[in-house]
Amino acid sequence: MPSLDNMMLRQIIMDHYENPRNHELVNDNEYQTINMDSETCIDNIDVQAKIKNGKIEDIRFDGEACAICTASTSIMTELLIGKTIDEAREIIKNYNNMIYEKDYDPDVLEEAIAFMNTHKQANRIKCATLGWMGITKLIDESEKK
Amino acid sequence: MIDVKKIREDFPMLNGKTMHGKTLIYLDNGATTLKPQKVIDSVCDYLTNYSGNAHRGDYDLSHEVDSKYEHVRDIVANFINCKKEEVVYTYGSSDSLNLVAFGYGMTHLHEGDEVLLTLAEHASNTLPWFEVAKETGCIIKYIDLEDQGKVTLDNVKKAITDQTKIISIAQITNVLGQIAPIKEICEYAHQKGIIVVVDGAQSVPHMPIDVQNLDLDFLAFSAHKLCGPTGVGVLYGKYELLEEMRPTRFGGDSNARYKSNGIVKLKNAPTKFETGTANIEGVIGMGAAIEYIQSIGMQNIHEYEQELRRYAINKMKELDNIELYNPDASGPIAFNIKGVFSQDAASLFNTYGIAVRAGQHCAKILGEYLNVSQTLRVSFYFYNTYQEIDAFIDVCKRGDDFLDAFFG
Q1: pTM of the model as a whole
Q2: Which domains, from first to last, does chain B contain?
Q3: What is the pLDDT of residue A1?
Q4: How are strands ordered across the β-sheet holding B375-378?
């Protein structure tokens, strides 16, 4: 049987899978868009971000994706909207550290700690990081400009 | 009947291998198959005891390699009932199909000629023809599929026009698993002068194949899907067609002599296609694998796998949460757990040590026919058991708990 903690984490994932947040793309020139198409599985999502003056004002996503990819991306959008680029990079760093079993600060990850077990299913790492890789690329691009 | 318990003793992977802490239940035989000890030993024997090059050198060791390497051509010829010089060693089914498309299609097709495929074909029997179409101006058309992906002679007849030059289809497709009526198709196609290319990757390992009886023109298959090593396979072609076919790679071993002015005399088929040092241990292992499955008997293998499939289908039909796409086929079973993304479901099976495939299975235009972009797939081989299917069915019932996989 799953432990009580695990039950909570499952509920977080199911909630974001069934009701993904910020889950509609917008047609707006102020947004940058990137397609994240997993080469190893079927996950195929578009991630959009509106980044202005070093701050992430909005993130959107849509596409065809599994529960892990959908929920992890949905949680990512909630966590990073309204953050400065520096704050966002810190959260992303902690998330990746958690996924790859390094030291991380669970407090900054909030609901994203639902993915703390991803390393136990190595084949799902790609799913749990696809949206996060997308926003990282969008932030990198915004800084090049 | 086959003695599955005894057969399983031959496979190291079926004796102690675990996945996610559970005894491995391997149901992804459409992707690749497990290897019996005899095949492993044959490869190790080459690497350990006679690892020289083939077709080189005038010493005993080279002769020893040659005779064992060439003997595998006899084994293959006996297996599919052809002449040994009609057996071209390749790097697998994909390589074989590429060789036909670029070596034969590219040199024989002209603008406006038509090549017939189906929407259920593997990428390896689709993308090479797309490339040939770009170069030659030939046109790719599709044979309509009947219910559950079935290919019928009637639909082949409907698709054929005066421009049709090549039909290239799988004998058993890799997702929907229907057996195409190859013999009847060849008979009809040959009356119209059409060449029939058969992708045998999913059929040759699972049923008796007699290329002369079927009268097909080309047949591609891989060793690793019939208990052999990866990176090796066969292209069978009628000898007169192999003579007309142009090699796609040039270099060592395939030429007889050449001069600085560019005049090259190639060796005869099949050697003219086998440039460069071959995957010798692969070929040796392929020979051992074919002898192994022949010792069990191809008809026995076919019948047992059909029984396993029927058993699984009947149990799956009892479950309300299972969507079946090809209950009446004979190869892999394509299905979904209702409401569960296939990748999530595959992870759940993984948690129970069961290997099943999720996604598009290298047949990415199949979604245009099925109206579902991705499925789960289980595919059996003669070493699978009813007990393994029972364990698989138990996990099917737990579909709603798919996130267990994530917290297991």
Answers
A1: 0.89
A2: 4-31+297-407 (3.90.1150.10), 40-295 (3.40.640.10)
A3: 42
A4: B322-324, B333-337, B375-378, B357-359
